[in-house]
Structure formats: structure tokens, C-alpha cells
Amino acid sequence: MSDRPLLNRRLEGHGSTIFAEMSALAVRTGAINLGQGFPDTDGPESVREAAVRALRDGRGNQYPPGPGIPELRTAVTEHQQRFYGLNFDPDTEVLVTAGATEAIAASMLALLEPGDEVIAFEPFYDSYAASIAMAGATRVPLTLRAPGFRPDLEALRDAITPRTRLLLLNSPHNPTGMVLTQEEATAIAALAVERDLLVVTDEVYEHLVFDGEHTPLISLPGMRDRTVSISSSGKTFSFTGWKVGWVTASAALVAAVRTAKQYLTYVSAGPFQYAVAEALRLPDGYFTEFREDLRAKRAILGDGLAEAGFQVFRPQGTYFITTDITALGEKDGIPFCLGLPERCGVVAVPTAVFYDDPDAGRSHVRFAFCKQPNVLAEAVTRLKGATLRA
Ligand SMILES: Cc1ncc(COP(=O)(O)O)c(C=O)c1O
């Protein structure tokens, strides 16, 4: 074999994801896993039953249609109408994907040329950097800084160059919990229009906004034909293993993204698509209860972390809390998180790994609160009982 590295240059440095690493650590040490963002209870029984019914009835057991089953595409359009007053054509303006992750990757592969620049909030959700890299494009960070993690709109304007092709935006934002205000979203949209940029929005936490409200950028003036809006059932319905996501966008953008998507997975999750179509039609009460349940969990973990001595940046949305460990006499989240399972049986994620400039998040540690209240309470007891101070 030649000395040439097996992994191509574009993916160098994108080894294993921090989530896989920390989840493996949780399993190895038997610690409570507040690292990876998956719930420890499944979503609604009726939705699970819908998947079983589809499997038994032979719906979706063979390749579903490339853009997704019509029932799900229609349910996605109804959801966009119900929550945001947005109208999409289920035949041409919706694409079902293998989770939001595939939608993001397909969007990057479809819309970017090598050398294009993509501006994204830093800390980045980790698949963004890899997807941009696979497309041969360059990521340009717009750093969200504690304590508020607000986007600096002047810095955004300055970051736009003639090579900037698109903005890859995530609100509610993982890991900081920042939710764009209507004013911020409007200002970003105006800039995208002014500079003729495409915008790809990752809205997987759209139903987890505790303070403020979710504004899809595609709903703002001038954005309908330049925005690829992405969401997914994993977070909203607590079935992260099903990997059913979707894109809503103009027919031209959907056609472009579909071109890349069809050669990635072609299709996926046949029977689950039927179940998610039912999930999207759940009454408003489901979505409200889901949010209020997570709001209560935010309080349990947030208060507990503060009592344990962390500086807590209370999230406006998502199911993550970012903390600062400086108050514990610690400086670096990476060794802190690697040692935490041994010290007290809890796993968390150092957010420095989501920055191009790790110093910007060196002392930040993220905890997930999508766990049962007794699990969160036990994690808090362990964190308070441990000698965390360096
Ligand atoms: C911001 C963000 N986008 C996308 C995803 C992945 O979504 P999916 O499981 O639908 O691929 C996650 C999961 O943690 C996320 O936090």
C-alpha cells in the first residue's frame, strides 16, 4: 500500500464525532449520558403504533417514492401552514430526507461549488463543517459569544465576501440554545437579499422554544425563493432513530437538493414516513405539552447545575444547556468532560470542539436535558456531591 492517507483530504480532521466518543464513554463507565441529544423515552404511543401498522400492512416496506410518500409531503405542508401560515406545494416544494443530516449534506453538495464560502454560526453543529468540507467549500464562522450568544450582525456583514454563496443558519441553536429574535431574523434576511445569498436553515428544534418564538427565515420578505428550510421528526416527536427529515423550499431549490439526495440514500425509512405523517397531524396540545415538559426539565437541570457551581447560560430553545466551568476553577472543557464520568458518573460534551477557534468556547460544557426528571435529578445530585472545584 502506498503512503497516501486513505481518508481524502477534504475529510481530514473530521474523524469520529464527539457525540459517538462521549456516548461510548458513558456506556463504558455506566455514567448518566447528558452528552448526546437523544431522549431516554420514546415519543407518542400512537405514532409508534402507526409505524407498526405500516410495517404490518406492507406500506413502505419497498422503496418509497424518491421525494417521499405523498401522505408525508402533504402532512409537512399542512404543518408549515398550521404553525407558520406558509404554503408549499407537496408535489414540487417538499423533499423527504434521511433526517435533517442528509438534508443538510444534500443541500451543501447540491448548492456549492469548490471555493464557495459558507457562513455559519459558531459553535457549529458538527455535521455542518463536514458537509461543507465534502462539497469542497470553505466555512466561515460567525462566532456566538457568551453570555447571550447573540449573532453580531455587523460581523456578519463584514464576513460576506464575493465568494460567499450561502448562510447555513440554525435557530433554535445547538449547542448554545440561542433563538433568533424576529428583529435578528429580519435583519439577516435583509442582508441575504441585499447580497443575493442562498440561506439554508436548520430548524430541527422549531418546537422547542421557551422564550420568544420561532421565525422561519423562509417566511420573511424576499426569502421564499432563496431559502432551503430543513426540519426533522427526530427531536419534535422523540424518535431520533427513525431519521425522517424534510426540506421545504421553492421547486427549483427542492429539485437541486433532490438531485444530490437521490444519490446519497435515494430513499429511506419507508414505514416510518407513514408514522411521521400521522405525527405531524397531532393536535396542537401535543406540541404545547412537549415544549412545557422540556421547559420543566430545563428548570431541573439549569437550577441544579447552578447549585453545583456552574455558570449556566439559560437556553431560550433546544434541549441543551451550555455552562461555563471557570467558576469551578477549571479552564478547559475537554479534560473536564473526559474526567467527569470517573469523578461523578455524568457525561457532558465540551463545546470547544464545535469552534474553529476553540479558545472561544474553551471553558464551555454542554448538558442535554431531554431525559426523565428522575435521571436529571440524579445527575444533579451526583454533580453537587462531587468535588468539582479544581
Ligand atoms: C442542530 C441539529 N441539526 C440536525 C440534527 C440531526 O437531525 P436528524 O437526526 O434529523 O438528522 C441535530 C441532532 O442533534 C441537531 O442538533
Describe this structure in words.
The protein has 390 residues and is α/β, with parallel strands linked by helices. The protein has two domains: 9-43 and 285-385, Alpha-Beta Complex (Aspartate Aminotransferase, domain 1); 45-283, Type I PLP-dependent aspartate aminotransferase-like (Major domain) (Aspartate Aminotransferase, domain 2, 3-Layer(aba) Sandwich). The protein contains 13 helices and 13 strands. It has helices spanning 18-29, 45-57, 70-84, 99-111, 126-134, 153-159, 182-194, 233-236, 251-261, 270-280, 284-307, 333-344, 373-385; strands at 32-33, 94-98, 117-122, 138-143, 164-170, 198-202, 227-232, 244-248, 311-313, 320-324, 346-347, 349-350, 364-368. The strands form three sheets. It has a seven-stranded mixed β-sheet, sandwiched between helices. α4 (99-111) runs parallel beside α5 (126-134) and α11 runs parallel beside α13 (373-385). It is globular and about 60 Å long. The chain starts with 17 loop residues before the first helix and ends in a 5-residue tail after the last helix. Pyridoxal-5'-phosphate (PLP) binds at residues 37, 99-101, 125, 170, 174, 202, 204, 232, 234, 240, 243, 245.
